[in-house]
Amino acid sequence: MSSQLIINNSIVDDEWQLVMPPKADEEVKKQAGKVVMFKLTGEGSLTNEQIENTIFSKNGKVILPVGVFLHHQKDLKNRISKQEIGIWMETHEEIDSFINEINDINLLPLISVRVKKFADGRIFSIGNLLRLKYKYKNELRAIGDVLRDQLFFLKRSGFNSFHIREDRDAKDALLGLNDFTTPYQGAVDQKQPAWKIIKR
What we know:
The protein is an alpha/beta fold. The chain has 2 domains: 5-19 and 56-197, Rossmann fold (3-Layer(aba) Sandwich), CATH 3.40.50; 21-50, no CATH class. It has 7 helices and 10 strands. It has helices at residues 48-53, 66-72, 77-81, 122-133, 148-156, 170-175, 194-197; strands at residues 5-7, 10-12, 17-18, 26-31, 34-39, 62-65, 85-90, 110-115, 139-144, 161-163. The strands form 2 sheets. It has an 8-stranded mixed beta sheet with strand order 2-1-10-9-8-7-6-3. Residues 27-43 have low confidence and may be disordered.
């Protein structure tokens, strides 16, 4: 299968392994004749059992769910120093809830943000926060439901790596990085607005 990863305006092979936690048990409750699904520990958060039971390789480059990373952080010091550990987070996870538990965010060579549905715009805000507020300098990757139409704007928000959805053409998505020539507003990728850059 061809690669779906875009970095530096090129389609490249992915040397990182994305680690997924086991699925959480779900409890079905009936309420007023409707079946409602409830996650036992609340919306989108990993359970202690999920964290404990997440399996990942002992060597090579792996991208861990942020909760799993925090749980194993002390034991991973050697692998972190060898640039073998990255993390991924969901768009509903608050950066402030875990950022202080990470010794130095720039020791991580890769942070990925997973968007479950392309209409979820929180990924753009997360990119801005990681780059501008938290001064993250390394590879920032968009994963999940990532489509061509988003790439130009994800780049403007600080992302420099994109894993295109498996059922889409990465070559076509690559063209999306150049959909516009001169953005009017300033952003992470170009701080000055167009009116300050263009010579009259």
